[in-house]
Automatic annotation (TrEMBL):
It comes from Blastococcus carthaginiensis. Pfam families: HTH_5. This is Metalloregulator ArsR/SmtB family transcription factor. Keywords: DNA-binding, Transcription, Transcription regulation. SUPFAM superfamilies: Winged helix' DNA-binding domain. It comes from the Bacteria. SMART domains: HTH_ARSR. Residues 17-112 form the HTH arsR-type domain.
Length: 127
């Protein structure tokens, strides 16, 4: 996916459907927008894991972990390979995913985690 920034025109590249690129980017961010899926991605950055290991680490039900992994797989972020009766899960594009997570952490640091206060997407404090 290539998203063009306004004024970024290259004569060697084919024109980009900006609406399609933005839609794909929004889908990517939604796939990482669930705290459990994001925790799985971060844990898989350490290496391959079985569902039972992720279940134990995250404290989630096996069915929940499997559903989140299916979502991440369908988005192209994780892959699995059989090992006996189980599957080993890993990141599909490890360097790019780690780069994205690092950029997100940098942005959160730069904004002082202001997104938490966002009335639309932030966390609502307990009342």
């Amino acid at each position: 996916m290539t998203m063009m920034v306004e004024g970024d025109v290259s004569s060697t590249e084919a024109p980009v459907d900006e609406a399609a690129a933005l839609s794909a980017a929004a889908c990517l961010f939604r796939s990482l927008g669930d705290p459990s899926r994001l925790a799985m991605v971060r844990h898989l950055a350490l290496g391959e894991h079985k569902v039972v290991e992720l279940t134990r680490h995250l404290g989630l039900a096996q069915s929940t972990v499997s559903a989140h992994l299916a979502c991440l797989r369908d988005c192209g972020l994780v892959t699995s390979r059989p090992q006996g009766r189980a599957s080993l899960w890993s990141l599909a594009a490890t360097p790019e995913v780690l780069e994205l997570l690092a950029a997100a952490e940098g942005l959160l640091a730069a904004t002082g985690d202001a997104v938490i206060l966002c009335p639309a997407y932030g966390e609502v404090p307990d009342r």
